[in-house]
Structures are given as structure tokens and as C-alpha cells.
Design goal:
Chain lengths: 191, 243
């Protein structure tokens, strides 16, 4: 086979029929054997790939998908819970504000009432103190007047004694003072 | 691979056929372990090494953490296959067929791309594509009997005059599917074989790479996708007429 034509004719021979060296196509027992071998190989390949590759890969992806689904579900539930909690918090805060306002208002009312009570009590006490002070002042005035009266009588007695001289004894002098006082009475000094 | 000397330029030997290696008896007939079987073994080994690595990564993964690196690729791939199955067959049925469709798609893609590794693609052997199409055929009629019961058979004779066409149409399904895939991949294999044989050896280092992009990567992935999509469509036709 030294020329192109010889080479080409060799190829045609190969394609047309089987030779001992090589062949391309034939519907014979070799073909049936090839088909059976390939079919068996294909079934083995299918089984091994299912066992080694496809099913484990799908199981892994399914596990990951389940995990992601669970995470998303949990995140959604957490979010819903958070929204609920926020709403509860807001409502509680509103309620607390309302309660605080009510408490403050009540406290204010109580304080005002207490203030009024304290003021009233203070006023009453002040009035009582003033009255007492006035009464004490009056009593003091009376006491001072009484003292002054006594002083004046004594001074007058001494002066009268001096004027009267030695004719009166001490007992007579005392009796005279008492009588005078009786006759004069309290009204004389208080007027 | 021997080189053929043509004047002063060195050429590669043209080789795109299936080679026989060791013979064995199959129902009393002599058949061979061929280069297709070896390529199927290598393709399956590549896929299984990937699956074992993925399994290890999955076992070590923590489902509570985001996937990274290789695990990301694995999960993306499985998810894409599931979406494809559910998109083509509906959410109810897609999940049941997703494992087979995923296995089929991985096998076809790696087989079609195995030309890049210097292998002869297993899908360039009609014994391979026919077997895959027969599995699809079995799944189609399994779903047909499961969801349509006897109507699956009686519908072939309705109307009675069209029954031969209906029956031929059913039989044609696996043949057309298998020949479509086989023809596309074989054409790429033959063309690449011829190109490698017809250009000087020195040129094979660079420019056939462009052709590999089309014949192996583009055509290979498209044909794998088409085969899987057709499998889904033909199976899911039986679900649609269930009611």
C-alpha cells in the first residue's frame, strides 16, 4: 500500500466487510454478543452509579434542603414571635403609660387632698396656738396687773403708814389693807 | 501503529476499524473480545472512578454547610440530570427514570469524548448503540404496559388499515435511534481516521485538533443529549396518553 489509491481501496474493503485485522459493521453473532455485553455493562453502571453517585448526592441535597427549610421555618416563626412580642410590648407599654398616668393623677389628687388636710390642720393648729397664746397673754396681763395692784397697795400702805404715824400697829395696818382690797374688788383694776 | 513511507513524507496508517483480540464461544459461535469492549471497560472505569470520588466527597460532606469544590460539581451535575429528567418527563415520573437517564448520558458523553484519549469510541460500534436503543425500547414498552395496559397494544391496530405502519413505527424507533448515534459517531471516527492517514505525520500534531472539537466534543455531546432526550420523549409519550 504505497499510494493514496491503494490506501483508499483498503479502507473501502474494511468498511464493506469484515477482515481478520479490523471491521466496522456486521449483523452476526459478534453483534449480538456486543449488544448483550453492553446491555449488561449498562445495567451494572446504572446500579453502581445509583448506589455511589445519584442516590447519595440526592440524599445529601435533600438533607441540606430540609435543614434550610427548617431554618427558614424557624426564622419565620421567630419573626412572627418577635412581632407578637413587640406588639405585646407596645400594648403593655401603652397600658403602663396609661396606668402611670392614672397613678400619677391619683397621686396628684391624693397629694392635693393631703395638702389640703395638712394646710387645714396647720391652720387649725395655728389658730389653736394663737388662741392659747392670746389666752396666756391675757393671763399674764392679769397676773402683772395683780402684781402691780399689790405693789401699789403696798406702796400706798407704806405711804399711808408714814402719814398715819405710830398710832396703828402692824396687825391693824394689815387689817386695814385687807378691808380696802375687799371694798375695791377685782373690777376696779380690770376696768 | 506502523508508518507508511510515501516518497519522502511519513504518513500514519489509516485505522478506524474494530480490532479483535481474544476469541471466546458464544452459544456455540466464535466471537471476540474487541477494541470496543476494552474501550467500554475504560469508559466505565473513568465513570466509576468519578463516582467513587464523588461518593467519598459526599460521605465527608456536612449537610449543614455550603458545598465547595468537587462536591459542588457533583451536586450541580446530579441536579442538572434531575432537572432534565423532570423537565422532559414531568415531576411525577422524571425522578424514577433520572438515575438511568443520568447513567446513560454519562456513558454516552464519556464514550463519545473517548476519541480524544486515542480510543475508538464504543458508540462507533453498532452493537453498543443498538443495545442502548433496545434498553430504551424495553423502557418505552414497560411504561406503555404499565400506564396504558392493553390499550398500548390495541392502539397499534387503530385504525386497522394503519396497523402495519404503526407496528413498523414501533420497531423503527430503536433502529433509528441506534443508527443515528452510530452513524454520527462512526462518521466522525472515519473522517478523523482518514485525515490522520492522509496528512503527513508532522501535521497531525496540530490541526486535526480543530476537527476533534467538532467531531468529538460538539457532535459527541449533541448526540449524547439527543439520544437521552429521545429516550425521555418516547417513554413519556406513554404517560401523556395515560388518561
Amino acid at each position: 500500500m504505497n499510494t493514496f489509491y491503494e490506501l483508499f481501496s483498503f479502507n473501502v474493503t474494511v468498511m464493506a466487510a469484515q477482515t481478520d485485522e479490523s471491521w466496522i459493521f456486521g449483523l452476526d453473532w459478534q453483534f449480538l454478543a456486543d449488544a448483550l455485553i453492553l446491555a449488561a455493562a449498562m445495567l451494572v453502571l446504572f446500579a453502581l452509579l445509583s448506589f455511589l453517585l445519584f442516590n447519595p448526592a440526592r440524599a445529601l441535597m435533600k438533607a441540606r434542603q430540609d435543614k434550610i427549610d427548617a431554618d427558614i421555618k424557624k426564622a419565620r416563626e421567630d419573626k412572627e414571635e418577635a412581632v407578637k412580642l413587640r406588639e405585646q410590648y407596645n400594648s403593655k407599654m401603652a397600658l403602663a403609660d396609661k396606668e402611670a398616668d392614672e397613678l400619677l393623677s391619683e397621686a396628684r389628687k391624693k397629694a392635693l387632698k393631703r395638702e389640703a388636710e395638712i394646710t387645714g390642720e396647720a391652720k387649725t393648729e395655728a389658730d389653736r396656738i394663737i388662741k392659747r397664746a392670746n389666752k396666756e397673754a391675757q393671763l399674764e396681763v392679769l397676773r402683772v396687773q395683780d402684781d402691780m395692784k399689790k405693789e401699789m397697795i403696798q406702796v400706798a400702805s407704806v405711804m399711808a403708814g408714814k402719814f398715819v404715824g405710830n398710832s396703828l400697829t402692824d396687825e391693824e395696818q394689815q387689817a386695814l389693807v385687807d378691808q380696802t382690797l375687799k371694798e375695791m374688788g377685782d373690777d376696779t383694776w380690770q376696768a | 501503529m506502523e508508518s507508511l513511507a510515501l516518497t519522502s513524507v511519513t504518513f500514519c496508517e489509516v485505522d478506524f476499524g474494530i480490532h479483535n483480540y481474544k476469541d471466546f464461544s458464544f452459544f456455540g459461535h466464535q466471537v471476540y473480545i474487541t477494541s470496543t469492549h476494552i474501550a467500554i471497560g475504560i469508559v466505565m472505569a473513568i465513570i466509576l472512578i468519578f463516582a467513587i470520588a464523588a461518593n467519598i466527597a459526599i460521605r465527608r460532606a456536612d449537610p449543614e454547610k455550603a458545598p465547595t469544590g468537587f462536591l459542588n460539581v457533583v451536586e450541580f451535575m446530579v441536579q442538572a440530570i434531575d432537572n432534565m429528567a423532570e423537565g422532559g418527563m414531568g415531576a411525577e415520573h422524571g425522578g424514577r427514570y433520572a438515575n438511568y437517564l443520568g447513567s446513560l448520558f454519562m456513558f454516552l458523553v464519556v464514550s463519545n469524548l473517548s476519541g480524544l484519549l486515542g480510543l475508538r469510541p464504543p458508540t462507533a460500534d453498532y452493537g453498543t448503540t443498538f443495545a442502548l436503543a433496545i434498553i430504551t425500547f424495553v423502557l418505552i414498552h414497560y411504561a406503555g404496559f404499565k400506564y396504558q395496559k392493553l390499550k398500548h397494544i390495541t392502539s397499534l391496530f387503530d385504525p386497522i388499515l394503519l396497523s402495519p405502519i404503526n407496528i413498523i413505527g414501533e420497531i423503527a424507533t430503536p433502529i433509528s435511534m441506534s443508527l443515528r448515534l452510530f452513524g454520527n459517531i462512526l462518521s466522525g471516527t472515519v473522517l478523523m481516521g482518514l485525515i490522520y492517514g492522509l496528512i503527513p505525520k508532522i501535521l497531525t500534531i496540530a490541526w486535526p485538533g480543530v476537527l476533534h472539537i467538532y467531531f468529538d466534543i460538539f457532535s459527541g455531546c449533541i448526540q449524547a443529549y439527543v439520544f437521552v432526550m429521545l429516550t425521555m420523549v418516547f417513554i413519556s409519550q406513554n404517560f401523556e396518553t395515560e388518561e
